[in-house]
Amino acid sequence: MPEIDFISAIHKKTKRDYLARVNEFPKAEAAKLAKQWGKDYWDGDRKVGYGGMRYDGRWRVVAEAMAKHYGLKPGDKILDVGCGKAFLLYDFTQAVPGVEVRGLDISEYAIANAKEEVRPFLQAGHANSLPFPDASFDLVISINTLHNLYCYDLEKALKEIQRVGRKHRYLCVESYRNEEEKVNLLYWQLTCEGFYTPAEWQWWFQLCGYTGDWSFIYFE
């Protein structure tokens, strides 16, 4: 269960004004809107979400790096838990033609507005109960999703990811290493429910029997 970073290079490309995040719009109201997981969060104002999530190919390098690292080949099955608009899943199909992709997300809006080419392979649902048989996927991923769960759902979700994977698993979550990063995370986040240090996250992995790979993003 090693730490391997596929995500931070993309995360660090975004410039963040943490003080503006909490001063320009009431943070509690922004979080309430974001947690509806609807248009406001995905395609509304940046103050309450992504500010318009449109495909721009940025995830292609991540798909290629994962495909190389995990030795993905045509016919392999990939599941993304918390797939959003499924841009990464689409890029997997371009990086490794012939892979089979499935995606699940809590947001019906995200599914309805996902990348058209992979939309038929997506469904709305909760990470705490994955509607797939045991050992269904060669690679199960979950990126920037599990920190949005309360602890009782996080435990179930980690066990579910372990259950449906038969070979490789990878997840990325928000974390903090010091007080500065903790404050920045609190200022920036809109949907986070689990605020854990790397050591606490690893405690969760061990508790739930998660044996896959992982990485963290930090708000430096």
Walk me through the structure:
- The protein is α/β, with parallel strands linked by helices.
- The chain has a single domain, classed as Rossmann fold.
- 38% of the residues lie in helices and 16% in strands.
- It contains 10 helices and 6 strands; from the N terminus they run αααααβαβαββαβααβ.
- The protein has helices at 8-11, 18-23, 27-34, 39-43, 60-70, 87-95, 108-112, 151-164, 179-188, 198-208; strands at 77-81, 100-105, 122-124, 137-143, 165-174, 213-217.
- Strand 2, helix 7 (108-112) and strand 3 (122-124) form a beta-alpha-beta unit.
- Helix 8 (151-164) crosses helix 10 (198-208).
- The model has no long low-confidence stretch (mean pLDDT 97).
Q: What is the structure about, briefly put?
A:
The protein is an alpha/beta fold and 220 residues long. It is 38% helix and 16% strand. The chain has helices spanning 8-11, 18-23, 27-34, 39-43, 60-70, 87-95, 108-112, 151-164, 179-188, 198-208, and strands at residues 77-81, 100-105, 122-124, 137-143, 165-174, 213-217.
Offer a few descriptive terms.
220 residues; alpha/beta; Rossmann fold; 6-stranded parallel β-sheet; 10 helices; globular
CATH architecture: 3-Layer(aba) Sandwich
CATH class: Alpha Beta
In quaternary terms, these chains amount to single chain
Strand order of the largest sheet: 3-2-1-4-5-6
Overall structural class, as computed from helix and strand content, comes to alpha/beta
Distance between the termini: 25 Å
Number of strands: 6
Judging from the principal axes of the Cα atoms, what is the shape?
Answer: globular
